Structures are given as structure tokens and as C-alpha cells.
Amino acid sequence: MKIGFVGLGKMGSAMAQNLLRAGHELSVYNRSRGKAEPLIQQGARVADSPADAARHSEAVFTMLPDDHAVEEVMFGHDGLLAGLDQGAAHVSSSTISINAARRFTEEHSQHGSRFVTAAVFGRPQAAEAKQLLVVTAGDQQTVERLGPAFDAIGRRTFVVGNEPWQANMFKLFGNFMIATVLETFGEAFAAIRSSGADHHQFLEIMGELFGSPVYKNYGKAIADENFSPAGFELKLGLKDVRLALEAAAEFNSPLPIGSLVRDHFLSALAHNQEKLDWSSIALVSARSAGLND
Amino acid sequence: MKIGFVGLGKMGSAMAQNLLRAGHELSVYNRSRGKAEPLIQQGARVADSPADAARHSEAVFTMLPDDHAVEEVMFGHDGLLAGLDQGAAHVSSSTISINAARRFTEEHSQHGSRFVTAAVFGRPQAAEAKQLLVVTAGDQQTVERLGPAFDAIGRRTFVVGNEPWQANMFKLFGNFMIATVLETFGEAFAAIRSSGADHHQFLEIMGELFGSPVYKNYGKAIADENFSPAGFELKLGLKDVRLALEAAAEFNSPLPIGSLVRDHFLSALAHNQEKLDWSSIALVSARSAGLND
Amino acid sequence: MKIGFVGLGKMGSAMAQNLLRAGHELSVYNRSRGKAEPLIQQGARVADSPADAARHSEAVFTMLPDDHAVEEVMFGHDGLLAGLDQGAAHVSSSTISINAARRFTEEHSQHGSRFVTAAVFGRPQAAEAKQLLVVTAGDQQTVERLGPAFDAIGRRTFVVGNEPWQANMFKLFGNFMIATVLETFGEAFAAIRSSGADHHQFLEIMGELFGSPVYKNYGKAIADENFSPAGFELKLGLKDVRLALEAAAEFNSPLPIGSLVRDHFLSALAHNQEKLDWSSIALVSARSAGLND
Amino acid sequence: MKIGFVGLGKMGSAMAQNLLRAGHELSVYNRSRGKAEPLIQQGARVADSPADAARHSEAVFTMLPDDHAVEEVMFGHDGLLAGLDQGAAHVSSSTISINAARRFTEEHSQHGSRFVTAAVFGRPQAAEAKQLLVVTAGDQQTVERLGPAFDAIGRRTFVVGNEPWQANMFKLFGNFMIATVLETFGEAFAAIRSSGADHHQFLEIMGELFGSPVYKNYGKAIADENFSPAGFELKLGLKDVRLALEAAAEFNSPLPIGSLVRDHFLSALAHNQEKLDWSSIALVSARSAGLND
């Protein structure tokens, strides 16, 4: 398949590489060109602009930090929409708001192209190892046609609806579920440390009890206070929880743990943790308990 | 080993059975004698009282609902303490407060016997299958001596300290971690159902993302609203979260998700859910979002 | 003073009337013209558009529901900015976001006019009785020049800064303080009613303890469940708390009670309370406690 | 009336003095006798024990810190119950749990005497100025008979039921209402300070908006961070919110703001604020926002 790829951060680069490896023909674009180099050496063509990456592609992926960045790439100078063929697809893997997803869907529809969400779960290492979970939604035929591309980047694909925003909703709530785990470890460790007991031992038991890599890996990072370099920056974690809260609010659904986690992310920002991993939310509980002050 | 066992509910019966199977000599006691029958048929001796179950035993287990029940069994008429030999151990598997554990430790010490906590994680089926996690603390020699008994009931034993209450602390916070999972599923499902999306599909993705039986099993019960018969009654879930909050408070450690979960358990009680499984806490979020009213 | 007034809801009409009574020359505009009639009979000129209301006025007030409405009035067809003289002032009494206030300030500055916030505290009856509290911020000279207009509508004016958004910030947090009172009454009454005690008697004591009309009046409405007609609609209450949360978030300041109140307003919306008075947030606590189901 | 008084802290001393001034015959007892001196000089008789203070009295007041202290005074060596005449009343002004109130009611009933709650609202200065609010409940005849004593210590008396615990319930929830005000000031000030605006000015507006001495006085203490000496110690504030939560829980009523306030009081204790005034809970919000660190 002829595929464009815009946004070559850690996640995007790993995904693009796996598309290449699976034999797809790739045009890549990144604002700072340096990040494209390793892919060029592996056979990718470098594009001059999002429009250029989109031109003659059957699909163009975007992996960007937020709504605004996607908007820029779509509508900015030499933007993606300007280059995209009729009938081709814009596959958005960025974690964006459900409202933006709806707006982009409408705009592609008017342009004669397709907007498809293919959100991914997994940290950069999982992306490299082709172990992502792909959660996709959009026009059924288009989603089916994209199957081989999804197979190239993940270990399993979930098709969750005909409307792209539904996949964004699932991604946001999946991140809400993970953020809650980070927060609970923070609270439990603070209490256990305050009692004088060994929180590493508690972690070991929780690893066995839950039997989950999410608990093991994040739990260890938190127990060791190993928050840098960030796998996923705290300010992005806050953004996602904020978007989950907004999505829930649209449907008049309260999300009290979401509210609490948002408050703690804000307190983390007030203590200069924006560049630390989002698991450093645990420091907020530690400080509340008079530890780490 | 010659072992007494007091408290033959679902968990206690399964544990006692595995002690029998492992070749230990067992005296069992339960207030309502009927529950002892299946064990008697498998070779257990029935005791007339906690004192009788304790007499000449190297260790006597108690698996009872709360502090008060353990107190009754220890000090009531023909109580456990009255029968327990010098140097023998009282192994408490009940989920009790850290304060009660300290008090019982002291009282056994004065009596010349040993109090040991051996808290267990796992639902009744896990107990039957010898798959419990045993979290134990207490006098080191005594704990070591009890190793074979712990091996008989669980798949792994964690020794977490010399003071019995530390194992109770870990048990309470483990249950806090699980209760939080129940609550997050409730909140996420309510939002997803309100949006019109399919929460069973979300569950499937979470099962894959977390890779944890806790998420899969409880998630399914909540998605199906399958809360009866209870594996663990909601009123006991509230008790445990309350005890975790009290334990944290003793060390001046806030536990905000614990507070939130406690409030939701109370709302569940106000809607007559005390006999439902504790995972029915999810109904509180559903009602808040105007679902299930 | 020659004054324009756009937005003749309950609050706007009462304020406009007091400006008339104080001898100011008034041009009034409302989308649905009917609401202007009583003012026309008292000597106001009716304007055809926001631009018309602004033309030749020294100041034009807007009293509108939200950011979007103010934006429409400013920039829409025959908008306020098109009619406003150089050096004249746009006095915004609407409860809007601090970001919108900053944007409007900038846009007026480019147009050569002045944006001033004059937020008001008080319900419609207080507006009629000239008992509002006026909280104003903006260019110092302009604010001073507007003094007589503020005196005409309120019992006291507070000048809180040179930047208009600061007055919006104070208004939002004032509403947060009131919303919290509504929520606490809801929680306390639910517990007291559940206990079988008389919550009207509790209210009487609180009236005496706090000695505040806010407590007395809102407390009575809540105790009587008298939520319609709304003095201030619940959906507007939610909007204000949301804006307070956003304002706090901009400065990395958590607002946990704000988060909790927001969640309860959402639950109220899920139970069709959008048109009830915002004090009906108390119904959420009643339902949580199993009352009013 | 012949009255005993046990517990001569700031509040108790002021109340006892007003009873003396109103012409009642007073026997006073305090564990450390020094505190009785000023009252002796004004004509009070000093008692050797609670029993002695109770002997031949028509009523004996207790003003003590908690359940445990009341229990000691009632049942300890030479305790109040040992001295109290048949038909005489024990008037408890201490802020105790509703469960303790029920237990004491029962015990007095068996003894042939009466337990009456007469909770008071007001700080020590209000007590001196005879400006307390008295909230009383108990046997109707006894409460009526005590009217002159209540008139001597407060500006108004509320009779709220026939069961003493009901007055304790009202007292606990009144303190919950005040604690919430402290917390909201903390949150709002933190956001306003973070924005660079002047929180003293915000306080001035709130003083006018609410028109309440509670808002004015506590708001000023918080704005000035003037927390010592304590009018009411933070650890007692935590105790009262904890008791309100327990009382609500007994009736299956969640109290989410109560939970949040409890968590913040705990964080305050973790930062050594137990001896500061309970209004210092505001420091928790300041620290969360990265201020005061």
C-alpha cells in the first residue's frame, strides 16, 4: 500500500518503521526533518509537506500531540487535505478530542476523502515491537481496506464503530483507566511508606495479584520514583484526562475519579513535573502525606 | 501438623479442605455446625468450641468476617485463648483492622502464645484451587514453622514483616486497589453507555490492555450487571475500604480515591445493595449518569 | 451619560431600568424585541442592532449568557464593534471565561475602543432593587468615568484591577463559593433527613449561625425543594463552575470542591434538571442517599 | 439552680462564668485545678471530683474534648454518675459522637438520672459575651427545666428533639458546614493568588456578598495566614468532620465534601498543623498549587 506518515515522534517513528518493514511504500513528513533520517535510510521517501506526504497515497497517518496540531497539518500551508486524493483516507492515531474527530470527519467528507481513527495503546517500546493495540472506527469499507496497515503496527486490531470519534472515546477512557492505576499506586504507596512498611514488597504482591504488565511496569517506576526520561509526558496525561472528562460531560456523565486525577495532575504541574512521566502523579500523594517535601 | 480451624464460610471451608488434603490433622469449628459436615467426611475432627479446636493444636486458623467476630472467638465462652497451648500460634486470615491486629498480638504475647496474620487474596474459587496469595507477618520463627500450612492453601506466600498488623495493612490496601478497579469500570462504562457506544467492546480492549484476570473477571461481571450471588458482599467491601482509610489516617496519609469509593459504597447501601457483590458499586455511577434509574 | 444596553433578560432588564431611572439616555437592543417594550415605555430608545445601540454611546453594556453570545454580538452582522465610537467603552456584565475577556480586550484595543468588565453579584430581585455588587476591572480612567453608571445599578462597586479578566475571575470564584454552599446544604440535609431529624430546624440554626441571606434564602429553597421557576438556571451554574475550573487550571491550581460540584451538576443534567434553579444540585445528594428516588 | 460544671477549658470557663453571673450556685471541677481559680474568686465552689461536682446539683454540665473524656468523667474513679442524684441531669456540651450520646443516654436512664445534650456554636469570645447558640435535645420536661441555664450562656436556644443524639448530629453537621467554608476559601484563594490577583480584595467582596461574620472572620484569618493561637485546634476539627462522616454513614448517606475535607485535614496533620487553628486547612490548598512550599 502507498502510505503517507506525518508526525515522527517516538511513537510515530516506530509505527512508520513497522509499516516499512511490512513492505508498504512510505512517504514521511516531520516538521523537524532530522527525525525522518532513520526512516529514509530504511527506504522511506521524505516529503516536503503534509500535502506532499498525502499525494497519491492510499492512506496518510498522523501521529501528533493534540487537536491543534492535527488541525494545522490538515489545513495549514501545503496541508494534508490539499494533497489527499478523492477516496483516500486520513488515518488519525493522535489522541484527540471526540469533537475534533467529528469535525475532521465532516471536513474530509466534504472534501471527498475519509477520516478514520486508529488510536493505539502501548508505550514506545511496544510500538517498536509491533505490540500495539489498534482501536479503529470509521467507514466500514475503508477500515477493512486498511487492515494490513493495522496488522503491520499492532498485535491486535479492534473495530469499534462506524464513527471515528468512537475510537477516540475508547482511547481516552483507556488512558483514564491507566491514569487511575497510577494514582492508586501513589495513594497506597504514600500510606504504606508512612506506616514504615516496605512499598516495594507491596508492589510485588500487587504484581502477582493483578498479573498485569501495566501494574508491574508502572508500579515499579513509581516505587523507584523513576520518572525521567518520560515515556509519556505528564502534561499529555493531563490533556487526555481533560478530554475524557469533556467527552463524559457531553453525555452528562460524571467521572469523579477523572476529576480527582485531573486535580492531581494540576498540582504536579504546579510542582514543575510537566516533562516527567505521567506516573509522577504519585509524587502528589507523597507530598500530601508529608513525604518527599 | 495438628491444626485447628475456626470459621467455615466459603473461604474458610476451601482453605480447611486444602489443609486436610495436604495431610494435616484438622479440628474444625463453626458456629452453625452444618458447615463442618463436608470436612468431617473428609476426615476432620469436629470441635465443640474454639477452645476445643485450639487444644493441642500447633496452630489454629481463624477466618471470620471482622474484628468483633475474632474478638468473640478469642475471648468468648470456651474461647480460643482458653484452649491454646503455650507457644502455639493463632493464625488470623480474617480481614481485620490494624489496631485489632496489634491488640490481639499483645494479648497472645501475654498469654504465652503467638498471633500471626496470614491474610489471603483470592475469591472462593481460587481458594478451592489452592491459588490464594498468602500475605503473612509475625514472629519470624513461627512464620517459618507455618510455611507448610501456607503452602497447602496458596500458590505463593509473601512474608512482609515481624509485626502481624503489617500483613493486615497490605491486605487492606490490596482490597483498596481492587475496589478502585471496580469503581473505574463503573465510571467508564457509564460514560461509554451514555455515548451510545458498546461497553462490552471497551471491556474486551481493557482485558487485552491490562492483561489481568482481575480486570477481565470483574469487568465482565460489571458489564453484565451480574452481581448475585455475591463472591464478596458489598458491605464487606465497604468495611475493608473503611479500614484502609482508618489505617492511612493513623499515619496522617490522605486516601482520596478511598474516600470516594467509600462514599459510593454508602450510596450503594442506600439502594439496598448490601448483599450484592461489591462490584455492584458500578451501579452508583450508572445511576449518577441517569442510567438504570 | 448616553448608554447602549444589549441583552434584556431578567438581569439585563432590571439593570437597564435602573440606568434609565438614574437619568441616563438609553438605547436598548434584544434579539427578541418584546423584552424591550417595558423599557421603551419608560423612555428608552429601541435599537435595530448591537451596532445601532452602540452608535454615539459613551458606553454599551452587554448582559448575555456566555462567551459565544458576546462574540456574536461583537462581531456578528451589525455587531457592536461596527457601531462603537473610538474611545467609547464596551462594558461586559456577562459571566464569561477569562480567556474570552482577554481576547475581547485585545480586539477592542485594536479597534480603538475599551473593553471593561463589570460583573455583578445578585439575583434578579437584587438587580431590581439596585442592590447588586459590581465588580469591575479595566483601564483605570475608563472605569472611573463609568462610576455613575455603576452607582445606578448596584449598592457597591469594587475596582479589582486594570485588566478586565481579573473581574471575571472574581465573579467566577464568587459563584464557585455560592455553588459550594448549595452543595453542602444538599449533603447535610440528605444526612439529616436520613437520620429522621428535621432539616428545616437545622436550616434555622444555620441561618442564625452564618447570619447570611445567601444561606437563609438558598437554604430555604433547598429545604422546600422549591427549584422552579429558576432564579439562575442549573446549566448556567455548571457553565460558571466549569469556567472557574478552567481559570484555576490555567494557573495550575487544583479546585477539588469545584470538581465535585461540577460532577454533581452533570448528574443533575442527566436527571433533566437543566431548567431548574442551580440550587437543585441538592437533589443529587438526596438521590445518592436513597431519598427522592 | 444548683449546677455542677466539669471541664474548664476556654469554652467551659466562659460558660461557667455566665452561669455564675446569672445567679446560679456553681460547683466546678477541672482535672488541673488551676483553671478553677478565677471562678472560685467569683464565688464558685471547687469540687474534688466529678462526683463531688454532681452531688446535690440539679444539673451538671460537661464541656470536654471527646467521647473518651466524657466516659472517663462519668465512670472513672469518683465519677459523675456516682454523685448524681436520681432525677438530676447531666448536660453534655461536648462535641461527641452520636453513638456515645446514645450510650450515655441509656446509662443515665438505668441510673435514674437524665442525659441531655446542649451543644453550643460559637468561639470562646462568643461564649464570654453570652452569644452562643445552644442546640439542645433530650427529655422534654428536663430540657424545659434547664431553660434558665441555657439562657444564661447563649443568645438563643434551639430544642431539636427528644433524643439527645439529635442535638449532637446538628452540632456535627454545623461544624461540617463551617469546615467547608474554610476549605472553599483555601481553594479560591490559592487560585486567585496563583493568578496574581489580590485575594484580600476577593475576601472583601465575599464579605459583602455573604454578609456573614463566619465568612468575614475566618476569611480574614485565612487571607492573613493567622492561624495561631488556635481558636479551635485543627485536630479537633478533624475529629468533628470524622464524627459527621460516621454519623452520615450510619444512615447510608454519603458526604463527599466531608470526605474531601477529612483528607485535607489529614494532609495538614502530616505537615504538623495539629495545634494550628482548623482554618489552616487552607494551607493544604496553597501547597497543592505550589504556593507556600
Word description of this protein:
4 copies of one chain form a homotetramer. By secondary structure, chain A is of the alpha/beta class. Chain A folds into 2 domains: 2-162, 3-Layer(aba) Sandwich (Rossmann fold), CATH 3.40.50; 169-288, N-(1-d-carboxylethyl)-l-norvaline Dehydrogenase, domain 2 (Orthogonal Bundle), CATH 1.10.1040.10. Chain A has 15 helices and 8 strands. Chain A has helices at 10-21, 37-41, 50-54, 67-75, 80-83, 98-111, 124-128, 140-145, 147-153, 164-194, 199-210, 213-223, 234-250, 256-270, 282-288; strands at residues 2-6, 25-29, 45-46, 59-62, 89-92, 114-121, 132-137, 154-159. Chain A has an 8-stranded mixed β-sheet with strand order 3-2-1-4-5-6-7-8, sandwiched between helices. In chain A, helix 1 (10-21) links the parallel strand 1 and strand 2. In chain A, helix 6 (98-111) runs antiparallel to helix 10 (164-194), helix 10 crosses helix 12 (213-223) and helix 13 (234-250) runs antiparallel to helix 14 (256-270). Chain A is elongated. The mean pLDDT of chain A is 97.
